[in-house]
Amino acid sequence: MPPVFPMLTVLSMFYYMCLRRRARTATRGEMNSRRAIESNTRALPINVEIVQYAKEVLDFSSHYGSENSMSYTMWNLAGIPNVYPSSGDFTQTAVFRTYGTWWDHCPSARLPFKRTPTTFCSQDYVELAFEEPVYPTAVHVLETYHPGAVVRILACSANPYSQNPPAEVRWEVLWSEAPTKVNGPQARQFTPSIKQINFPTNLIRLEVNSSLLDYYTELDAVVLHGVKERPVLSLKASMIDMNDIDEDEDEEKYGCGMDALNKQFSIVSFREWPSNGYFDKLPYELIQLILSHLTVPDLCRLAQTCKLLYQHCCDPLQYIHLSLQPYWARINDTSLEHLQSRCTLIQWLNLSWTGNRGAISVSGFSRFLKVCGSELVRLELSCGHFLNETCLEVITEMCPNLQELNLSSCDKIPPQAFNHIAKVGNLKRLILYRTKVEQTALLSILNFCSELQHLSLGSCVMIEDYDLIASMMGAKCKKLRSLDLWRCKNITENGIAELASGCQLLEELDLGWCPTLQSSTGCFTNLARKLPNLQKLFLTANRSVCDTDIEELAANCTHLRQLDILGTRMVSPASLRKLLESCKDLSLLDVSFCSQIDNRVVLELNANFPNVFIKKSFTQ
Prior knowledge:
Pfam families: DUF7885, F-box-like. It comes from Odontophorus gujanensis. This protein is of the alpha/beta class. It folds into three domains: 49-227, Jelly Rolls; 291-463, Ribonuclease Inhibitor (Leucine-rich repeat, LRR (right-handed beta-alpha superhelix)), CATH 3.80.10; 485-619, Ribonuclease Inhibitor (Leucine-rich repeat, LRR (right-handed beta-alpha superhelix), Alpha-Beta Horseshoe). The chain is 26% helix and 17% strand. It is built from 16 helices and 21 strands. Strand 12 (378-380), helix 9 and strand 13 (404-406) form a beta-alpha-beta unit.
């Protein structure tokens, strides 16, 4: 019989190494060597658990509601539950702007960035502050309608209420998972198993992906459980997950804070090999093609292997399209500085969600664009709260070829700064959702940017006269294909008439929650007759939409794919049948809260038109 002791020794050593790695992960090197691992026979110290609801909503990427009310806004996540455990569509909950894949199948849809890691699927986020910093033991998300959107929960080392901001802000992922389809829209308390971290936190971030949902997800409250003293790691509690080992090794090698990518970006040493193997025999272009499938961190790691691959991995042709959004928590001025030499030919750049809490400075952003902005065609800066007037001035000066600019939810940019955008005469896409753009600046932009094809002005509350804006669009923006006027408070039938007469190429128009539009003025009939190319029309929450409007759409807009008439009381089943029979490409029809369209009618329409998703929301 062969001896078993060597095998036992190997297994013991492996188990000991796993425990050491787990202990190191839990404490991040802060444990004293005498306290590295506690025995499971030793009693853990008593630590009273603190349970707290969010005190404040600090930041978010989008919401369904208005900037001037509480209905369907992210601010409803602060405090105790308003709705839970009830299920249904309630205005007192937090709702993001989009759901499903409908927004990916409309004229305004943007092409995705290549090299996005498969593990990053977040579409929206919300950040919540709590009163007391704690070591998290549990996070409860109270979902009251169409649950299943939360894909990632993170904790931050920075205390938003501290008078002394830390030198380094660190984010740790407590839990993450790919989007999953939840059966049924009923309310639930979502309590994922979270990772133990080595710092106290009172700043929690939820990231969501609503692509698998049949309707808007609604969140009511978030509960943070935690203790004031760091829990001692117990052997009994240390369940080894084999999938964690590689991640732990990466964290040990590259760090877990802001320096994680910076160490990879800046590495210039590589192993010395006598040759580059079979790669020497491959054409340069073929190697470039192979490497184009790697993510940015993988490129940086591969660059350390040999001189040949180092040259390929640092070739600016590998960085023509670059999205740093998946790494938002680890990007700072140093990251941009290391990337400068590789991004001299960059055309698409995504810095959305990056740079907040001082990670990227105005000077660091400006230095990067001065070196790398000359070829930029597309620039994504959504939720970039470091942006100010100087940044917009640098963009307009350093990016002469810019065609697409996304400033969605950049609500810290002062109103006067938007005047600089008028200098970018080649703009084809401009997203100003939830910004403080004012009327004078917007008129200047429309006057000088006549090439605009896609324009988003959703929730821009500082514009005083949308009729004047619509008139300028009709006169100057003849190539406009999509226009978002979501929650525009003062546009009337006069502005709609100017818009429809001048922008007859429009394929997408969002007039959701525009209360000053009334069907009795003929504005919707006018739209249907003047805009035959319409594929998407949102008339959300306009109670005046009637059968005449639907019949005009059926007669004139036969290419219609998406129609939202949520909340109307004047549309009958007969007019909807005419629409469905005429518009063969229709795929989305939202008739939620339409008083004449009951569940029986929806079932009948679904049976006769199975290719159309007909949505009927409810409240219990």
